[in-house]
Design a protein that fits this description.
The protein is of the alpha/beta class. The protein has one domain (2-229): Metallo-dependent phosphatases (Purple Acid Phosphatase, chain A, domain 2). It is built from 6 helices and 15 strands. The protein starts with a strand and ends with a strand. The model is unreliable at 218-226 (pLDDT under 50). The structure holds manganese (II) ion.
Length: 231
């Protein structure tokens, strides 16, 4: 399965008063071209779709046009999760409806979130969309104290793994600051005031591949893409 992994589009971002949408449209057009040229099977956007909770309308329009091209014209499934910049409930709009067209949106954190299973000739590949989750949200939903981001993520992963066969191919999709990783350059505000916001790399050990947003284990520029072949 060929996966186009991208993140941190931050659509609608202004940089020192300069709107970046025209540049973002150029980059998204390049991503569409990569999706076509590389004959990918699925596109993953690992959080921070928008730059803010209430994005400008032209940013919403750009996302809409991009998703239409990917899904209606290229017939590619798309999996996207909320990052810390997205409003989870607004992003979640239409979730069940869009899933029927293979647009899998994970905005709102839920206690009963389910993985996405996509098929290739070797069987199922399970995607665990780990939408950005504050410790307080995880505490409320789990009924147990989740003192930090690491505990919240571990709770989300546990829920997902319980629904995935142990021997199946598994991919995590997460928006987190992994210990030892690089934050995405120039795109991030602090996740919290005080307290640890990093998550441990070992959380992702059960997965064959982890599609991260927010930071990267190698230095990959904002809006870059990698294609992963998993068979
Ligand atoms: Mn982020």
């Amino acid at each position: 399965m060929r996966i186009l992994h991208t993140s941190d589009w931050h659509l609608g971002r202004s940089f020192h008063g300069l709107h970046l949408l025209e540049d973002q449209a150029v980059v998204l057009a390049q991503i569409l071209q990569i999706a076509k040229d590389s004959k990918v099977d699925v596109v993953v956007v690992a959080g921070d779709i928008y730059d803010r909770a209430v994005p400008p309308t032209d940013a919403v329009g750009l996302l809409n046009a991009t998703l239409e091209e990917l899904i209606l014209n290229l017939h590619l499934p798309v999996i996207l999760i909320a990052g810390n910049h997205d409003n989870p409930d607004r992003l979640n709009f239409g979730q069940a409806l869009f899933a029927q067209k293979q647009l899998y949106i994970y905005g709102t954190v839920m206690a009963n979130a389910t993985p996405v299973a996509l098929e290739d000739k070797y069987g199922s590949v399970y995607f665990a969309p780990l939408t950005y989750c504050e410790p307080l949200t995880a505490t409320e939903l789990s009924g147990e104290k989740q003192p930090n981001h690491d505990a919240a993520l571990a709770w989300q992963i546990k829920q997902m793994l319980a629904q995935i066969p142990a021997d199946a191919r598994k991919i995590a999709v997460a928006h987190a600051f992994v210990a030892g990783a690089m934050p995405t350059p120039d795109s991030e505000r602090p996740l919290a005031v005080g307290g640890t916001t990093t998550v441990e790399l070992k959380n992702f050990e059960p997965f064959n591949y982890t599609a991260l947003g927010h930071c990267t284990l190698r230095k990959i520029a904002v809006l870059s893409c990698v294609t992963v072949v998993l068979s």
